[in-house]
Specification:
By secondary structure, this protein is mainly alpha-helical. The protein is 65% helix and 0% strand.
Length: 124
């Protein structure tokens, strides 16, 4: 199957992208121009979940918070690798199954290590 694509073949994609970008820009401009503009000190205050602001925004945050976030992303990305494997399960055969068992064993070993180190324990 030898097909060659010309630049004109991509014209519908470029037009669609241009229309989407134009819609976003026009919508932002129109809502800014016709929307209400009531400035007040109460309205300009930051608002977070109905809780009034206390202290400074630059208070130190525990490193555990960031560590848990990074671990979540790490294990989440590793689990994403299971989707293509599940889609191609029959094509991969026994070798693919053994490779996934090895992958799962390494993933669970890492998770076990994290739990044994107490990384996920929160001190109050």
């Amino acid at each position: 199957m030898n097909t060659t694509y010309l630049p004109s073949d991509f014209l519908p994609i470029v037009v669609q992208f241009g229309l989407a970008a134009a819609f976003i820009v026009v919508t932002m401009i129109v809502t800014h121009k016709i929307g209400p503009s009531r400035k007040s000190s109460l309205k300009d205050d930051p608002f977070e979940c109905g809780i009034e602001i206390k202290g400074d925004a630059r208070t130190p945050v525990s490193v555990k918070y960031f560590l848990v976030a990074i671990l979540f992303v790490l294990f989440d990305v590793e689990v994403i690798f299971m989707y293509p494997w599940a889609v191609n399960f029959r094509k991969l055969g026994m070798l693919g199954f053994i490779e996934m068992l090895l992958f799962m064993a390494l993933l669970l070993a890492g998770f076990y290590y994290i739990i044994r180190k107490g990384v996920l324990k929160w001190e109050q």
